[in-house]
Amino acid sequence: MSANSESSHTGFLAAPKLSIGVKSNAPRKSRRSPTADPAKSSAGIIETEQKYCAPNYLPLPVTLVRGKGVYLWDQDDKRYLDMMSAYSAVSHGHCNPRLVAALTRQAEQLTIVSRAFHTDKLAPFAEKLCALTGFDKMLPMNTGAEAVETAIKAARHWGYKKKHIPGGLAEIIVAEGNFHGRTTTIVGFSSEVEYRAGFGPFTPGFKLVPFGDANAFRGAITPSTCAILVEPIQGESGIRIPPEGWLREVRAICDENNVLLILDEIQTGLGRTGEMFCFEHEGIRPDGLILGKALGGGMMPVSAFLADDEIMELFQPGSHGSTFGGNPLAAAVALEALQILLDDDLVANSHRLGAYMLSRLQKFRTPLITDLRGRGLFIGIEFDPEMVSAREVCERLMTRGVLSKETHKTVVRFAPPLVIEQDQIDQALETFSEVLAEIAADRSVTFTVES
Asked: Among residues 259, 254, 230, 273, which one has the least CA distance to residue 379?
């Protein structure tokens, strides 16, 4: 398997110029010419972005212009190893040649007509995804948050129609530390103050309980509970892994109480944790599954909610929708993304190289690191905030050609494209070791690597 093979890019077909309607002699309203210049320095580009974009992100100070496989290049043609993969969206590697070809073919044929009409691409994509997951039906959306909102609708609808919960009283139990998206409904049941501050009032009907505590979930259930909605591993919270057996116990609790178990595998699904789906580690099956990120192959925003007929057939025409959801361009790319996962055995690669990376990281000895957790190519390294911030670690890695991003100020994530190879992991860990040694020297603490 090669992550670095080059591909040819087919150009877009030129559209004929059409003259429509009557030409107006009225003076045209002047518009400001864009000032962005490809030749600008990285600092100039960052300055322009900060001037015109709302400051809701704090990116690392690097301007990326090109990607291939596990590598990215900046404005000055400096190469970086991507250990972030856009929060698992680029599992197939940057500009995967097969995905570029699928995107180009479909873009030259048909992109979107809305779900007002059938197309030839949604059906095979839906069939493939249902076969892979084992669910009867899927509902295609675009972003992960949209798929979560779809799952919430489905759970409530099932609660009213099948469980006969009185109207307007359905409850969903969620976990503290969750991250399911950024809509007002979703941040309303977040436990993170910064996600919620200034955005209320929030949608009622959610209960927060501690992540990984099965008894807390059991105790929160009432006759009005329609679903439990959780991530099997909390990614944005810092790659938090629950105790072994927790998910099996939650499955049993749901069965005992006639409650749906809905799993958000937007980050963990499609091979990220060394199984096709994270729930397979505990041998259970959810009632509903939320997928996204890698489903779009790093090319398109594609997400989906999946469940069996008992839940999905409650949707009726007009009860839910999305103009872009399931469009032929997205469906063609997603179908190819699923096939690549299988053809290139990326799940096995995640399992093997994730175990390898964890085994090497476990040999790092320093008081800078307080915890190491991970499964497959989904790894979090927690730092003592009294000694160093995760942001500083990421900035130092960046200067040495490795890109990652901190979460919650204390955790550095290593979640590279699943096409990564062992020598590239060695390169990343060697750089990480150099950074830790430098920080340890600055802080007058020890850092060693066991042989």
From this structure: 273
d(CA 77, CA 65) in angstroms, rounded, equals: 8
Q: Which amino acid is residue 254, in one-letter code?
A: C
Q: CA-CA distance, 306 to 139, in Å (whole number)?
A: 6
What span, in angstroms and rounded, lies between the C-alpha atoms of 208 and 191?
8
Domains, the chain: 59-88+346-449 (3.90.1150.10), 98-343 (3.40.640.10)
Within a 10 A sphere around the Cβ of 418, how many other Cβ atoms? 31
Give yes or no for a contact between 315 and 110, defined as CB atoms under 8 angstroms apart.
no
SS (H, E, C) 49-111: HHHHCCCCCCCCCCCEEEEEECEEEECCCCEEEECCHHHHCCCCCECCHHHHHHHHHHHCCCC
Structure tokens at 419: 């096409």
Is residue 179 part of the annotated active site? The answer reads yes
Q: Which amino acid is at 288?
A: G
* Other beta carbons less than 10 A from residue 406's beta carbon: 20
Name the catalytic one among 135, 211, 213, 264.
Answer: 264
Token pair for residue 407? 């979460």
According to DSSP, residue 425 is labeled H
Over the stretch 341-365, which tens digit does the pLDDT of each residue have?
Answer: 999 999 999 999 999 999 999 999 9
Name the β-bridge partners of 71. 68, 81
What pLDDT shows up at residue 445?
Answer: 98
Please pick, among 125, 135, 179, 414, the residue that the annotation labels catalytic. 179
351: left (phi over 0), alpha (psi -120 to 50) or beta: alpha
pTM of the model: 0.91
Select which of 217, 293, 383, 405 is catalytic.
293
Query: Which residues are CB-contacts of 155 (< 8 A; sequence separation ≥ 6)?
Result: 170, 172, 226, 227, 229, 260, 262, 288, 311
CA distance 396 to 341: 33
144 φ, ψ to 5°? Answer: -60, -40
- Pairing relation of β-strands 364-365 and 448-449? antiparallel
Q: Using one digit for the tens of pLDDT, what is the confidence trace for 41-84?
A: 888 999 999 999 999 999 999 999 999 999 999 999 999 999 99
